[in-house]
Write a structure and sequence with these properties.
CATH architecture of the largest domain: 2-Layer Sandwich
Oligomer: single chain
Shape: globular
Helix content: 10-25%
Number of helices: 7
Distance between the termini: 57 Å
Strand order of the largest sheet: 6-5-9-8-7
CATH topology of the largest domain: Beta-Lactamase
Length: 277
């Protein structure tokens, strides 16, 4: 396999992670934002290709310069928003955003102080359609220049939530953060959900989501979860969940990828709606 580079800009920064060979040896530590690099393991001679996050499938990213102008945007983001890349390069982030330039500047000043922030906003497609998005913005420096990396995922409101709730801002009866194995590290429930499920938040936190599945559901849903975690993609599922007193209830859930401060996939944010039928 030939060594190849498609780098427009390779931005080394404090955003770093470890890339390891299949044999377990460390081959590279850092973060490639754009392009591909090929490394040969010194231990076993295996070739490993490290992919920049802008190139990754189903990974919506935008890179801004210090003037909050778009200097690169991932193909996945382009496909989602419907623009050509040439439509956006050099334009301000407000071209796709719904926040005006002055407010964007205030937000980005906070990002510089905090290192990164999570927030919800809306982006505008070329068709003028607005889509709500979960956004992580990360500040970094490279060669004395300042940049912001934006990672975003659409907040999709499922048809069942629209029909039963009628409110696109409704985040469901149960909201959870799950790690890549399905362990629950955050949960928030409505009073109605507590009454139906009989669990308190303390009963659920730090447990595995699959502990609450009926046996007939468990193996198939674990497989779907693992596939989604590997591909870092959003999934919508209908599950039979066991209440604390052993009854089964139907919960429709939507899971979106969740990323840490380094832009690395670390699990899912899940919103669930309990069937009242």
């Amino acid at each position: 396999m030939p060594i190849f580079f498609t780098l427009q800009r390779l931005m080394d920064s404090w955003i770093s992670r470890e890339y390891r060979c299949l044999c377990g040896k460390l081959i590279f530590k850092g973060m490639i934002l754009e392009g591909f690099l090929e490394f040969k393991c010194r231990h076993c001679d295996r070739i490993t290709i490290v992919e920049g996050i802008v190139n990754r499938k189903n990974f919506n990213t935008v890179i801004l310069n210090s003037n909050y102008q778009i200097i690169n945007i991932s193909d996945s983001a382009i496909d989602l928003l419907g623009y050509l890349k040439s439509d956006l390069i050099g334009k301000g982030i407000e071209t796709i955003g719904t926040i005006n330039k002055d407010l964007n500047q205030k937000i980005f000043e906070k990002i510089k102080l905090a290192g990164s922030i999570l927030y919800k906003t809306s982006y505008r497609k070329k068709s003028k359609e607005l889509i709500p998005v979960n956004t992580k913005a990360i500040f970094f420096r490279q060669k004395g220049k300042e940049y912001i990396l934006i990672i975003f995922n659409p907040i999709k409101v499922s048809e069942f939530s629209k029909s039963k709730r009628g409110n696109e801002d409704d985040y469901g009866d149960v909201t959870m953060h799950l790690d890549t194995l399905g362990n629950i590290n955050f949960v928030e429930m409505t009073e109605e959900a507590v009454d139906i499920l009989k669990y308190s938040e303390d009963d659920i936190i730090q447990r595995n989501i699959f502990d609450f599945f009926s046996e007939e559901d468990k193996s198939e849903k674990i497989r779907h979860f693992k596939e989604a975690a590997i591909e870092e993609k959003s999934i919508r599922v209908t599950n039979k969940i066991l209440t604390k007193d052993g009854k089964e209830v139907i919960v429709d859930s939507y899971l979106i990828p969740h990323y840490d401060n380094f832009g690395i996939f670390c699990g899912f944010e899940s919103s669930g709606w309990i069937s009242k039928e």
